[in-house]
Amino acid sequence: MESGPMSVDSAPLEPPALPEGNANEPTHGGHSRFEVELEFVQSLANPEYLNYLASRKFLTNPAFIAYLDYLQYWTRPPYLKYLTYPTSTLKTLELLQQEKFRQDIISPDLAHMMIMEGMKTAVEWHREG
């Protein structure tokens, strides 16, 4: 099986160092672990990417599921402030903790529905603002 953004088999137990404090941290392709995990957790807000992960069997892999659980540190300060789209990112991270959602997102129809709901929410938010 392909590995995720970092090897899920060796996912560290502690969250990465914050950007201010990671000068000595090893890099992965020129990026710190913080940067890699931030980019990955934010990509989970994309329903089409979730559908891709499901279709490639990532969402049934116990090691990958454990990695998704590990990423829960993004729901708490100080990491939370680094998310560009915290609402959709955190909601998706919450949904990915549920086995039923991990099974259901393989459906392109569910991914499309999530995209449409996200657009509807954005339009309503702008109308209220």
Written description of the protein model:
With about 130 residues, the protein is mainly α. It has a single domain (about 30-129), classed as Orthogonal Bundle (Arc Repressor Mutant, subunit A). The protein is about 50% helix and about 5% strand. It is built from 6 helices and 2 strands; from the N terminus they run ββαααααα. The chain has helices at about 35-45, 45-55, 60-70, 85-95, 100-105, 110-129; strands at about 25-30, 30. The chain has a two-stranded antiparallel ribbon with strand order 1-2. Strand 1 (about 25-30) and strand 2 (about 30) form a beta hairpin. Helix 2 (about 45-55) runs antiparallel to helix 6. The N and C termini lie far apart (about 45 Å). The relative contact order is 0.14.
Task: Describe the structure concisely for a colleague.
Keywords: Activator, Nucleus, Transcription, Transcription regulation. By secondary structure, the protein is mainly α.
- Number of DSSP E strands: 2
Rounded Rg: 15 Å
Structural class assignment: mainly alpha
Number of helices: 6
CATH class placement: Mainly Alpha
Low-confidence stretches: 1-8
Largest beta sheet: what is the strand line-up?
Answer: 1-2
CATH architecture assignment name? Orthogonal Bundle
CATH topology: Arc Repressor Mutant, subunit A
Silhouette: globular
Query: How many structural units, i.e. domains?
Result: 1
The CATH superfamily title: Mediator of RNA polymerase II, submodule Med31 (Soh1)
Overall pLDDT, averaged?
Answer: 88
How much beta, percentage-wise? under 5%
Helix content: 40-55%
Largest sheet: 2 strands, antiparallel
* Helix and strand pattern: EEHHHHHH
CA-to-CA gap between the ends? 46 Å
